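Sequence design from tokenized structure. All designs in this work follow the same two-part layout: the structure record, then the generated sequence. An example of the structure record is given first.
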């Protein structure tokens, strides 16, 4: 049975790798360049890039809750269908508004997939939730990292150092679809590997709706789940702010070239990938609360220090430290949410968690842009860092440590 569960987890990670690779490739850098080629303004480009995140804010909670009612595989299969076949629809795009509609629909893939996949892991991980959720997250991040440059490589290859035509974008999205189909194939394999987590329901529609709202109500009324989810959301707010403005600071203030600016962000991502599985395993053994609290402080201090230097080597060190802080928080927050939740509501809990995550990620660049329009980098980053620190104290005072399967309580 253990080998079967390990096999299922490995296949689920493979599904996530190819799904996220396809999705990342479709988003960056193809999407903004595609919108630009269609004559979109900068504001319009920002809207089309953010359309899929808006989808996640509104649909992750319902998607996770429905997986509690109808079963994980039904919802997972639905999300992978969107991952696999939506890229082919980009082939039909000839104007900007068509692109907006497709992006909003494409966002359903991650809106459904994220909470459902995490709920599937929580179903079977037992007291290894931190390790397995962190490893799964790292695998999907690697898919993102590979997908983004691969999309850029295809466009560059097709253009021959010239401009890109509409046909070039269509070919690139065709490649996205092929990668998505690989994920679809592994999903079919996953459905044959063992326990399907499918809930057979013959209830009336009224009973389905009753269970739907009951699951949501039980999750969102648990202050522990909401506060813990907000730790990820606020930490992700700082990630979004740094993602948007670290490259700009590096080029305009530190006078680095764009390549070195890209390396700074890459250092943050790499340290997050490497540290997350390790920290997840540690949180399973020794407790999640001290790791989340420490991660908020590590992120806050490194963020506040970035505007104090213009030296590339100090900046790359601070970016790497920030990535470690992110790994501390994200390795343990989802697992702690699952610890607090009843098994039948894992989907609703992960949907709530994902929605707050998306709100934080979307808010980060907006808040940072607002602050930077009025204040310096130093003051702006310190204000965001203070948000992390204040949140960490609220978390420490209000949220207890879940003790089952953990060696010590904080």
């Amino acid at each position: 049975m253990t080998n079967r569960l390990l096999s299922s987890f490995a296949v689920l990670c493979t599904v996530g790798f190819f799904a996220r690779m396809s999705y990342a490739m479709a988003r960056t850098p193809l999407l903004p360049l595609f919108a630009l080629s269609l004559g979109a303004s900068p504001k319009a480009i920002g809207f089309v890039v953010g359309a899929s995140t808006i989808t996640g804010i509104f649909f992750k909670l319902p998607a996770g809750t429905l997986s509690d009612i109808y079963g994980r595989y039904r919802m997972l299969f639905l999300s992978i269908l969107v991952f696999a076949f939506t890229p082919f629809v980009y082939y039909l795009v000839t104007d900007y508004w068509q692109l907006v509609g497709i992006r909003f629909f494409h966002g359903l893939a991650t809106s459904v997939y994220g909470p459902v996949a995490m709920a599937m892991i929580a179903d079977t991980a037992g007291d290894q939730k931190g390790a397995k959720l962190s490893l799964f997250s790292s695998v999907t991040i690697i898919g993102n990292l590979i997908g983004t440059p691969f999309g850029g490589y295809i466009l560059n290859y097709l253009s021959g150092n010239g401009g890109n035509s509409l046909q070039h974008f269509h070919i690139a999205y065709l490649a996205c679809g092929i990668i998505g189909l690989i994920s679809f194939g592994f999903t079919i394999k996953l459905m044959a590997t063992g326990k399907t987590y499918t809930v057979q329901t013959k209830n009336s529609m009224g009973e389905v709706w009753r269970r739907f709202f009951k699951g949501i109500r039980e999750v969102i009324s648990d202050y522990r789940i909401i506060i813990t989810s907000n730790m990820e959301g606020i930490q992700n707010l700082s990630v979004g702010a740094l993602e948007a403005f670290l490259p700009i600071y590096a080029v305009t203030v530190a006078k680095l070239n764009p390549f070195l600016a890209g390396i700074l962000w890459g250092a943050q991502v790499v340290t997050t990938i490497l540290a997350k599985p390790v920290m997840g395993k540690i949180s399973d053994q020794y407790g999640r609360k001290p790791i989340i609290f420490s991660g908020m402080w590590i992120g806050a201090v490194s963020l506040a220090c970035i505007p104090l230097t213009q030296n590339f080597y100090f900046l790359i060190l601070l970016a790497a430290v920030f990535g470690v802080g992110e790994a501390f928080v994200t390795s343990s927050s989802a697992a702690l949410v699952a610890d607090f939740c009843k098994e039948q509501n894992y989907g609703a809990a992960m949907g709530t968690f994902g929605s707050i995550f998306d709100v934080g990620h979307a808010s980060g660049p907006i808040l940072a842009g607002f602050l930077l329009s009025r204040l310096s980098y130093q003051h702006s980053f310190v204000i965001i860092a203070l948000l992390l620190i204040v949140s960490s104290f609220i978390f420490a005072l209000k949220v207890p440590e879940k003790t089952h399967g953990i060696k010590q309580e904080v």
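Residues 129-159 form the longest helix (31 residues). We note this feature because it recurs in several other targets discussed in the main text.
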